[in-house]
């Protein structure tokens, strides 16, 4: 179509590429499809069924006042052309006045800015929560490692004291015959192995051969 400005006529190119293009609906009709027997069988077996066809025609009515923003060019025959900008800038064909278009663009820019701020804030918040959880897990792991280190140190010290006191055979682990009995097996209740050997024995008690459900630390004094 063409934009008429007094004596000047400007042909608008690539209209459908324009932003903010609001067309008037001049034709809108729905035609219901009448299916034959073959069509019903086809839809039954293949699951594809057409219910009808919607036909819509949109256009700018003659005499509509429009605002066009793009590149103005002159063709070889002297015709003035409004075309999309060559540097990928927005191309506008709209029925809005220029002031309304600029206001809408500012509102969209402001909305985008607020959405960006909101998204950034949520990202920082969730990032902080994630960092806090990771720090808590790391601290928990370090505390567990420190506790295990202290337990191992206490166990070595206790075993050394026991060896210095010549531990009786009845109080020694029935498996290695070296370390003191440190683990009680449940549900049988036998206190018969050290902690080192308990890591290798998980199925049955070495004394009564009953199933081991759980283990518990025990200390002989």
UniProtKB/TrEMBL annotation:
Enzyme class name: transferase
Membrane topology label: Multi-pass membrane protein
Catalytic activity from the UniProt record: S-ubiquitinyl-[E2 ubiquitin-conjugating enzyme]-L-cysteine + [acceptor protein]-L-lysine = [E2 ubiquitin-conjugating enzyme]-L-cysteine + N(6)-ubiquitinyl-[acceptor protein]-L-lysine
Xref: InterPro entries: MDM2_MDM4_MUL1, MUL1-like, Znf_RING, Znf_RING/FYVE/PHD
SUPFAM superfamilies per UniProt: RING/U-box
Family annotation (Pfam families): GIDE, zf-C3HC4_3
Domain RING-type per the UniProt entry, residue ranges: 173-209
Enzyme Commission (EC) number: 2.3.2.27
Signal peptide (from-to): none
Main location: mitochondrion
UniProt GO molecular function: ubiquitin protein ligase activity; zinc ion binding
SMART domains: RING
Transmembrane segment boundaries: 111-131
GO cellular component: mitochondrial outer membrane
Subcellular location(s) of the protein: Mitochondrion outer membrane
GO BP terms in the entry: protein ubiquitination
UniProt keyword list: Membrane, Metal-binding, Mitochondrion, Mitochondrion outer membrane, Transferase, Transmembrane, Transmembrane helix, Ubl conjugation pathway, Zinc, Zinc-finger
Protein name (database record): RING-type E3 ubiquitin transferase
Species annotation: Homalodisca liturata
């Amino acid at each position: 179509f063409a934009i008429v400005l007094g004596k000047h006529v400007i042909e608008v190119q690539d209209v459908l590429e324009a932003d903010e293009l609001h067309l008037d609906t001049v034709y809108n009709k729905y035609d219901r499809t009448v299916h034959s027997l073959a069509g019903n069988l086809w839809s039954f077996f293949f699951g594809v069924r057409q219910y009808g066809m919607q036909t819509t025609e949109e256009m700018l009515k003659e005499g509509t006042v429009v605002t066009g923003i793009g590149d103005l060019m002159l063709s070889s025959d002297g015709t003035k052309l409004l075309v999309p900008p060559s540097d990928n800038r927005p191309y506008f064909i709209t029925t809005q006045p220029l002031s309304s278009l600029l206001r809408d663009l500012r509102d969209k820019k402001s909305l985008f800015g607020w959405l960006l701020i909101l998204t950034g804030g949520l990202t920082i918040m969730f990032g902080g929560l994630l960092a806090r959880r990771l720090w808590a897990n790391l601290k928990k792991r370090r505390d567990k490692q420190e506790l295990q280190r202290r337990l191992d140190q206490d166990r070595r010290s206790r075993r050394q004291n026991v060896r210095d006191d010549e531990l009786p055979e009845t109080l020694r682990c029935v498996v290695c015959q070296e370390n003191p009995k440190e683990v009680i097996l449940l549900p049988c209740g036998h206190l018969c192995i050290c902690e080192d050997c308990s890591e290798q024995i998980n199925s049955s008690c070495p004394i009564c051969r009953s199933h081991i459900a759980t283990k518990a630390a025990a200390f002989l004094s």
